[in-house]
């Protein structure tokens, strides 16, 4: 067999296997030493989630907790943690992937370990991430796929059966789904000089149809709402590996604003992880000022929208511009507009006028 | 039945009682005619006493007091009378005191309240049988009273654990209440009435039969707690001439005397030796047996010291039973079982003083008892005069002294219950903990082995031992609570 150079993904998989086995060893030996087993991990309680202005993302503070099998309230989640670690090790060593939903169902039939709901199993998976300081994607556990990518990027698969196979992401006109195979692939080369991130599938499709990737020389990513971690991780990789600037287009409402912010600064839920945030990414629309400047058709902000805006205003991630300015503007006009609102000026208006203008000023 | 038990207790031999109810004829109204047969192994009734004993209502008059079962003193005869009125059939009485056997067939001459002997045979008694058999016919509806009757028998067996009771019902079904012990409680002694408890009618009857020449001797001879000095002082206080002949007292003098006796406070306390409580040990045996309690169930019996109300001595006994056996037999919550002089009280529970004590006076949450905790509260009041509330004699009046004693007795038992429940809760919690650990530790062992690529699972036994260490200790403590002997409050 031909000797292949060791890839990044192989090294990563081996490291994951080692740390999972170490966790098993630790617990095994604790029991053999007549000790109730325990693991230390950083606390994920809200008072230990701190915003780090340097990193421009949330991080976990120094407080640690001990998940201890001697504690009657801990022993069930502890057992679930050990089971989940074993399940993850099986995935990694068999080079398979699974979804959060599948993990939840796999524990069914494991009497007493069974998760009472998806929420519980997701939580244990996050515990495992914290305990081993690795994202769940390293364990082969992915969320349901819904976001997609399109543009001139050549990737090389590493998943079993596809190892070494290459593909260009313009090959499929609907875009390529960002799943485990794409996430674990190597990025070989790209001619693009920027990344456009779009919140909505309809607009993503419109941009492909209008050849936006060629006109703007861009890779385009569709987040399908709040972007999954694998998608954020890819944005981060494109930004750090190819130094591509990232521009984010969302609906002009508090929810769109926050979708952009999570790409920039990450979420509190993922405070224990690095490599998901892209602090250099820029949110360039739809701003409240765009609504005024482009005279976009609008809807009124609801009570919930206004409440959310006020929360965002006090959020430590939102201290800079244009965030503060635009939030104030939204609060002032009490209007919101979707990406599709540009259709008022014709289907191609957004590609012909709006995007070039925004990219120009960004 | 009650008379049979009394007769056996007098003889000091554990009673065997056999009851049989068989249907003679069914009627259209739902009321049928039955033959009732009662057999006992008691003292037997002397031949010459039989006609008046069973054929005359209000036979016997009490000038002395002692506790006996009969609520009216005419239970037996009234049954015979009832049978005669409803069926017009004679009663058969067969009895022997150990010598020959006497068989009587008789009816009651209702107009003259006297026995009419229809037949009298004397039979040789080769086996030296002793006891009494009564067989009579009466009208009734067994299906309607069945549950009450069985309840009555069960409760009677509960307070007479030394009795062996057999009942055959009209369908031929056999019900057995086996004795749980050969031991019997001490017999009550006869005592003279206490001046506080005397009423005008009894006073008048005493005067009619007395041999005393003057009021001074009369007081000393016929009352307890009255010595020469007390008699003198009392009569002076009551303004009655000590030298007066008792028969010369006018009715208004008697009323005056009775009233004065109630108000005079320097008599000795009423003598409780005429009372016969069941006793903690026997009552425990009876309740344990009739409620099918196991060693794991809680039972605490309390016999209070004698007390008095209105010149009558009384003793309260109470018991609390709790546990799985109790919840199996009764609806959840508290079940009250009442006795007066060892007679079960089956009716009007919520009008009685025990109900009031259980539901009003006692704050059960103090004793860790919630509304659905399965409890059986047993209360026995014995006295020469039970404070019944109505002529029906089915429930106890709330005499303050009696109410207080019942409350105190239940509270005493409940204090032990509280300890038992607290410890049960603890042991249940420890068990639950152990359950959880024995559920999860093997899984942790299994998956930590698999996770670290090992074939052998680590040994979790030492860890389980640590978790279960406290359980036997707590269980032992629970056992200590339910053993009542020797503990004081």
Give an overview in words:
The complex is a heterodimer of chains A (362) and B (489). With 362 residues, chain A is an alpha/beta fold. Chain A is built from 13 helices and 17 strands. Chain A has helices at residues 8-32, 75-93, 100-106, 118-132, 180-183, 201-209, 212-215, 229-241, 254-265, 288-293, 303-314, 323-333, 349-361, and strands at 38-42, 49-52, 57-60, 64-68, 98-99, 141-142, 148-150, 153-156, 166-168, 176-177, 186-190, 194-198, 218-222, 246-249, 282-285, 299-300, 335-336. In chain A, the strands form 6 sheets. Chain A has a 6-stranded mixed sheet. Chain A has a 3-stranded antiparallel sheet with strand order 9-8-11, with no helix packed on it. The longest helix of chain A is centred in the first third of the chain and has 25 residues, at 8-32. Chain A starts with 7 loop residues before the first helix and ends with a helix. With 489 residues, chain B is α+β, with helices and mostly antiparallel strands. Chain B has 4 domains: 2-177, Heat Shock Protein 90; 195-270, Helicase, Ruva Protein, domain 3, CATH 1.10.8; 276-418, 2-Layer Sandwich (Ribosomal Protein S5, domain 2), CATH 3.30.230.10; 420-482, no CATH class. Chain B has 14 helices and 14 strands. Chain B has an 8-stranded mixed sheet with strand order 5-4-3-6-2-1-7-8. In chain B, strands 9, 10, 11, 12, 13 and 14 form a 6-stranded mixed sheet that branches. In chain B, α12 packs antiparallel against α13. The longest helix of chain B is centred in the last third of the chain and has 52 residues, at 400-451. The chains are: A alpha/beta (362), B alpha+beta (489).
Keywords summarizing the entry:
heterodimer, A: 362 residues, Dna Topoisomerase Vi A Subunit, Chain: A, domain 2, 2 domains, 6-stranded mixed β-sheet, 3-stranded antiparallel β-sheet, 17% strand, B: 489 residues, alpha+beta, Heat Shock Protein 90, Helicase, Ruva Protein, domain 3, 8-stranded mixed β-sheet, 38% helix, globular
């Amino acid at each position: 067999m031909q000797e292949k150079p060791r890839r990044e993904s192989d090294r990563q998989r081996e490291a994951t296997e080692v740390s999972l086995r170490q966790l098993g060893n630790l617990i095994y030996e604790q029991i053999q030493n007549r000790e109730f087993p325990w693991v230390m991990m950083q606390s994920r309680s809200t008072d230990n989630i701190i915003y780090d202005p340097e990193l421009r993302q949330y991080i976990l503070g120094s407080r640690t907790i001990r998940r201890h099998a001697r504690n009657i309230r801990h022993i069930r989640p502890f057992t679930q943690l050990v089971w989940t670690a074993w399940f993850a090790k099986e995935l990694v060593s068999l080079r398979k992937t699974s979804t959060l939903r599948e993990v939840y169902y796999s524990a069914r039939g494991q009497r007493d370990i069974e998760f009472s709901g998806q929420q519980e199993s997701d939580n244990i998976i996050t515990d495992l991430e914290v305990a081993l300081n690795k994202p769940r994607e390293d364990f082969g556990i992915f969320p349901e796929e819904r976001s997609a990518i399109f543009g001139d990027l050549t990737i090389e698969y590493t998943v079993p059966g596809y190892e070494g196979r290459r593909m260009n992401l313009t090959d499929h006109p609907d875009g390529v789904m960002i799943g485990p195979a794409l996430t674990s692939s190597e990025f070989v080369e790209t001619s693009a000089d920027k990344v456009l991130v779009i919140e909505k599938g309809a607009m993503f499709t419109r941009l492909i149809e209008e050849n936006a990737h060629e006109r703007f020389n861009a890779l385009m990513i569709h987040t399908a709402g709040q972007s999954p971690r694998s998608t954020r991780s890819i944005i981060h990789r494109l930004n750090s590996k190819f130094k591509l600037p990232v521009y984010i287009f969302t609906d002009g409402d508090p929810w769109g604003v926050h979708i952009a912010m999570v790409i920039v600064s990450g979420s509190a839920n993922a405070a224990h992880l690095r490599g998901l945030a892209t602090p250099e990414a820029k949110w360039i629309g739809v701003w409240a000022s765009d609504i005024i400047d482009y005279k976009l058709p609008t809807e009124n902000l609801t009570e919930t929208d206004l409440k959310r805006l006020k929360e965002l205003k006090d959020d430590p991630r939102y201290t800079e511009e244009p965030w503060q300015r635009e939030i104030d503007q939204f609060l002032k006009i009490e209007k919101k507009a979707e990406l599709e609102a540009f259709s008022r000026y014709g289907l191609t208006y957004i590609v012909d006028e709006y995007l070039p203008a925004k990219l120009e000023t960004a | 039945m009650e008379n049979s038990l009394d007769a056996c207790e007098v003889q000091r031999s554990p009673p065997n009682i056999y009851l049989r109810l068989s249907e003679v004829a069914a009627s259209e109204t739902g009321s049928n005619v039955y033959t009732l047969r009662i057999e006992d192994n008691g003292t037997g009734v002397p031949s010459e006493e039989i006609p008046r004993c069973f054929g005359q209502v209000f036979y016997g008059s009490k000038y002395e007091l002692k506790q006996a079962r009969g609520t009216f003193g005419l239970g037996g005869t009234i049954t015979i009378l009832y049978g005669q009125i409803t069926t017009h059939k004679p009663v058969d009485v067969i009895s022997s005191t150990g010598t020959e056997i006497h068989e009587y067939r008789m009816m009651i001459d209702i107009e003259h309240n006297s026995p009419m002997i229809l037949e009298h045979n004397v039979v040789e008694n080769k086996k030296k049988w002793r006891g009494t058999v009564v067989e009579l016919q009466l009208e009734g509806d067994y299906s309607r009273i069945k549950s009450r009757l069985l309840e009555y028998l069960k409760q009677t067996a509960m307070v007479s654990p030394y009795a062996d009771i057999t009942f055959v019902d009209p369908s031929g079904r056999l019900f057995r209440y086996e004795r749980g012990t050969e031991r019997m409680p001490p017999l009550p002694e006869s005592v003279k009435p206490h001046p506080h408890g005397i009423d005008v009618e009894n006073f008048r009857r005493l005067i009619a039969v007395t041999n005393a020449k003057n009021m001074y001797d009369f007081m000393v001879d016929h009352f307890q707690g009255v010595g020469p000095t007390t008699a003198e002082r009392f009569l002076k206080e009551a303004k009655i001439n000590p030298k007066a002949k008792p028969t010369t007292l006018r009715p208004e003098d008697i009323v005056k005397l009775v009233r004065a006796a109630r108000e005079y406070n320097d008599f000795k306390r009423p003598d409780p030796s005429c009372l016969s409580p069941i006793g903690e040990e026997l009552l425990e045996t009876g309740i344990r047996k009739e409620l099918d309690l196991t060693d794991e169930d809680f039972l605490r019996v309390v016999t209070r010291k004698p007390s008095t109300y209105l010149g009558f001595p009384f003793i309260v006994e109470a018991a609390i039973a709790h546990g799985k056996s109790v919840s199996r037999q009764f609806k959840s919550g508290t079940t009250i079982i009442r006795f007066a002089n060892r007679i079960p009280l089956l009716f009007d529970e919520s009008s009685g003083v025990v109900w009031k004590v259980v539901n009003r006076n006692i704050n059960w949450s103090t004793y860790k008892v919630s509304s659905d905790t399965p409890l059986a509260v047993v209360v026995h009041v014995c006295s020469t005069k039970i404070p019944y509330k109505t002529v029906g004699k089915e429930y106890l009046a709330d005499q303050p002294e009696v109410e207080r004693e019942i409350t105190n007795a239940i509270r005493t038992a409940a204090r032990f219950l509280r300890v038992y429940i607290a410890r049960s809760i603890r042991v249940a919690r420890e068990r639950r903990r152990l359950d959880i650990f024995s559920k999860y530790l093997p899984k942790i062992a299994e998956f930590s082995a698999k996770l670290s690529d090992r074939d052998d699972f680590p040994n979790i036994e030492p860890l389980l031992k640590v978790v279960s260490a406290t359980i036997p200790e707590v269980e032992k403590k629970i056992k200590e609570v339910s053993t009542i002997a020797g503990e004081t409050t």
